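Input (structure):
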């Protein structure tokens, strides 16, 4: 069972309660002889690294769809004119 401290101990003798918390990792706070709260040290959430950017996919998403072979022939014929 984790060590206990009273609410009064938390208010009046916080350095000792903090030392117990650092050593044990958890302190149960009691109020009127009954366990009421659990005090644990705060841990920062792990830092999320952003996913790498796929620049090639982003570039190709901005490009128009390529012409088909039939469209290319039609454009070539249209640009040839009356020859």
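Output (sequence):
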């Amino acid at each position: 069972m984790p060590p206990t401290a009273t609410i009064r101990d938390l208010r009046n003798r916080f350095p000792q309660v903090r030392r117990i918390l650092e050593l044990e990792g958890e302190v149960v706070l009691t109020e009127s002889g009954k366990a009421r709260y659990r005090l644990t040290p705060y841990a920062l959430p792990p830092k999320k690294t952003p996913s790498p950017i796929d620049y090639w996919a982003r570039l190709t998403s901005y490009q128009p769809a390529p012409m088909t072979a039939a469209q290319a022939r039609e454009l070539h014929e249209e640009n040839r004119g009356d020859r």
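Notes: The chain has four helices and three strands. The first helix runs from residue 7 to 12.
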